[in-house]
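yo

u said u wanted the structure for the complex thing, so here. seqs first:
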Amino acid sequence: MAHATATTEQYAELLQEEQKHQLDERAFGFWLYLMSDALIFSLLFATYAVMVGRTAGGPQAHGLFDLRYTFGETMLLLFSSTTFGLAGLSIRAKNKGAVLFWLAVTFLLGAGFVGMEINEFHGMVVAGAAPERSGFLSAFFTLVATHGLHVTCGLVWIVVLGAEVLRKGLTAPVASRIHRLGLFWHFLDIIWIAIFSVVYLPGSF
Amino acid sequence: MLGKLTMDALPLYSPVALSGALMEVIVGVAVLGFITWYGKWRYLWSEWLTSVDHKKIGIMYIVLAMVMLLRGFFDAIMMRTQQAIAYNSPGYLPSDHFNQVFTAHGTIMIFFVAMPFLTGLINIVVPQQIGTRDVSFPFLNSLSLALTAAGAALVLASLVVGKFSTAGWSAIAPYSELKYTPGVGVDYWIWAILISGVGTTTTGINFLVTILKRRAPGMTLMRMPLFTWTALVTSVLVVFSFPALTVTAALLALDRYVGMHFFTNGHGGDMMNYANLFWIWGHPEVYIVVLPSFGVFSEVVATFSSKRVFGYHSLVYATAVIGILSFTVWLHHFFTMGEGPAVNIFFGIATMLIGIPTGVKIYDWLMTMYRGRVRLEQPMYWTLGFMVTFVIGGMSGILLAIAPVDYMMHNSVFLVAHFHNMLIPGALFGYFAGYTYWFPKAFGFKLEHKWGKRAVWAWVVGFLLAFMPLYVLGFEGMPRRMAHYATPGWQPWLIVAEVGAVVIAVGIAFQVIQLIVSIRDREALKVTNGDPWDGRTLEWATACPPAHYNFAVIPEVHDIDELAWRKQHGVVESTLAPAEAIVMPDNTSAGMIIGGLSFVLGFAMVWHIWWLAALTGLGILAALVARSSDDHGEHIVGADAERTIEGEFGMEAAE
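structre next:
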């Protein structure tokens, strides 16, 4: 019963230890979330594969896409992953300014991607290839826009975490949030590569 | 301003619907008035609704499930009554209303009774079984509960404002498309499913991480209690199957809201894709609701036979195999789609294969009882009731797995009999066994046993009376979901089924009486030593109810039946030992706020009130950002504070 009263420092240490354990769990939980999200995409891909021929007399995949334009989108997204990686390295170097800089570059590249995608969609709708036109176009717009919506959420998240870096600096919780955002961002890259290969490439030849 | 919402949305179209709505409103107002009268709002908010204690969240889940069970059962007895009298007569329910009733019944029973009940049991029990103080993500847990409740509230709201879907609980396309079902009913279904589906997915992730990362030292995977094992496999199924439900409902929403053509009749829509997507979730869902119940039976049989469960390893592997196979059988829900013999044979064989691990489990439980010292307490009653009735449903399932037979039985009441025979004994009886088994753990006193056993008898007899006639009617060719019929031979059987439903109602009444009697006699039924059943697993190693942090000292695990091992080896770890200071999560209102906003969001989307939807959507985003930026979600429970708390609970040192 001669339990010494714990000091404030001991409590702080205890909290920190618990926090480290929690951040580990959050990373694992986030992987699981990504896996369930991957399933959403895989079902949208499967639906696209089912619907690709169901054009109902409307526009077909062939001739609908401009591969060079899409290649530009792809480059923006791939480079944004690289710049995100650089942000991650800057965290390790504890360089707050560099983290903010690379996050900003990533944001711009991502925003460019979303802008290009919106422009592409707009052009298609104007040309009479709107999602209401056929089952094929419904599946196309839903699959690609779901990815685009994820990227948009990623952009919001970048802003939120950028603000946190500014406010709190590179604390352990902030760094771990950026790590999870990174997982999310690279995951979207992989999904995009699949979209490029399943939707755009076959549609262009 | 209010979208499609006008005064016409009130249920003035039928006196039956109006009285249902009035009853719901009166009960709701009465409950709110009660809380206000006794001035319990602050208590309710700060002790319960904002709590992140997994035990309290679990209790709230089960309260939600029981409330919804009453509503779902009301729907059931309405249908039985209609069919009992609707021979050559319109009965008392207009067809359109009858269709709403069977849709609401299925939706409520699966999503808002089975899911919250099993989630509640997992919440209360799993952290205590694996020797941890809380789940990995306590806030997410509170959010999951709030989202599930928001979905349930949407279904309840549809009775008062507007109509519910008439498309069946699976909202089968293209009937559920705008062209054939233009009202708001299907939209209520969609948003209830989407919102509660998010909550379920996060629960799955939460418990997957909790079980894999938070087990007490020494508890290897193969030392986990079987209920925890089934919770683990169920969580895997949730994480990997609920995305399919989300996709299905979202695509249907896109068809209905933006005019897309995923499942429409024409414009390249593919309605069979709906069936595929829906049942890719739907079949694993069957095992999501059944596996935790199997877990309960494994615990109950071992405890009340006073010996280790027979074939622990085979039960673990059977659980895992069921989990894997559950993803390979979805097509048996629509053999009649006509995919061809090769495809049908594949799915037929896969379906029959599931019978093997399930059979293994039944034999393991029987062998556990064999030469055990069986004590016939209430949980054991439910378990025996399950075993006797469940095997009938298993055999009728094997019949349906044969595609040519299924062609004869498809969409007949034989199918209705089959899956109720799976879900009532297989899922519900298991939950009731768990409810009676762990009730003292949650509240510190046992449930009164006489009324409990009466309830079991009424449920088992009522179940047999209600559903065995449906097998016969299925053979006689009666299709499911008929509002009225002209075949005289069916009516006697339907009257027997009605009697069965009444007997079940009596069973439910007994359960209500049991609860009231138990609360009245709680002093006499009090559990003093924390171990009312001579339990075998860790959740019984602490007080009933335990302190909010469960374990003063995180236990070291040596055996599958850790507590039994400790009793045998005379290991007594005083739970009053001076403990280190520990870290516990803070309460938060963020979950309830987001849940409330989600309900409004769903309601606004149903009625096309776009500005409100946008506003609540932004509110949810803001709340999420605010919560996710919070670095200080914990507090310290000091060693001294801890002793005080245990004093309050009247804990006695283990003997």
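Residues 32 and 41 of chain B are 9 Å apart (CA to CA). The first helix of chain B runs from residue 15 to 37.
cya
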